[in-house]
Amino acid sequence: MTTIDTTTIMVELPEAFDPRWSRLPGIQVDGRRISIDPAEYFFRFESHTWLIADWELVRSQLLQAEETTESTVEQLALDFIKAHAESTSDATRVLATAYQVYAYLFRNEHLAGLGLPHITADHLRMLREAATLMALNKVELDGHISNVGPCWFFPAATSVVFDLDDETGGMLDEIYHGGWFNEHRRIEAIKAHAALGGRLVHGCQSVPDQSGGVVAPYGASMAAFRDDLAQFKAGWIDEVYAHRVTDAA
């Protein structure tokens, strides 16, 4: 049975978030301060702990590490998590760590070399904000999806918050889960996500499927993850889209 912790989650981040996040139930944005009412915000909130590692330690010890024929980048990340990650019940700490991860992954300096002229600094800001909130989602080792918020469904949530059309929302979703279609940035993402205790995985193969993603622990059952996701995604996607502002300018 789903259990909901009624304690309000509050965090103040270095970047002011778009106030339109407040269109989604249970979340209020006041500049850099974000408040989340778990009972209103989450579709499913069964686990109140997360695995995280100190971002500054990730920066100093992992981001510059190079894989070898003996140790792949995934093994480097797994070894780092085993050595340095810890369980926390502090959702504020999770959000603060996630913001640092995504401020690094979606930094503006990438724009010049992307070869994607339609991607702007504003798009990267949207990605940073949505991905930060997605860090509260959770998958257990047995593949069960224990925490699900509206940001699980990236194109739906961003269409509500940022008034994006389906094409633009889908484009951002592809950038989020596609490693920016670049091996160098995929490697960056594997290392950076060690701060959130795992690797970024998705339940979809492309935008139209919109099955979302989560930072899952290494070793989680992807078969069970897929089956659990298939049971709930359609109805919850509809619930997110219900908050879309249809007369947005």
Structural category: alpha+beta
| Cα radius of gyration in angstroms | 17 Å
Number of helices: 9
Mean pLDDT: 89
Largest sheet, order of strands side by side? Answer: 1-3-2
Strand content: 5-15%
General shape: globular
**Sheet having the most strands:** 3 strands, antiparallel
- Number of DSSP-assigned strands: 10
**Unreliable segments (pLDDT under 50, ≥5 consecutive)?**
none
SSE order, as H and E? EEEHEEHHEHHEEHHHEEH
Q: What is the straight-line distance between the termini?
A: 41 Å
Q: Helical content, roughly?
A: 40-55%
Secondary-structure map with pairings?
Elements: E1 9-12, E2 27-30, E3 33-36, H1 38-41, E4 44-45, E5 50-52, H2 55-61, H3 73-84, E6 86-88, H4 91-105, H5 121-134, E7 138-139, E8 145-148, H6 154-162, H7 166-177, H8 183-192, E9 199-202, E10 213-216, H9 222-241
Helix pairs in contact: 4-5, 4-8, 6-7, 6-9
Written description of the protein model:
By secondary structure, this protein is of the alpha+beta class. It has a domain at about 50-140 and about 150-220 and about 230-240. Helix content is about 40%, strand content about 15%. Strand 7 (about 140) and strand 8 (about 145-150) form a beta hairpin. It is globular and about 55 Å long. The relative contact order is 0.16. The model has no long low-confidence stretch (mean pLDDT about 90).
Report a brief summary of the structure.
The chain is built from nine helices and ten strands. It has helices spanning 38-41, 55-61, 73-84, 91-105, 121-134, 154-162, 166-177, 183-192, 222-241; strands at 9-12, 27-30, 33-36, 44-45, 50-52, 86-88, 138-139, 145-148, 199-202, 213-216. The strands form four sheets. A three-stranded antiparallel sheet has the order 1-3-2.
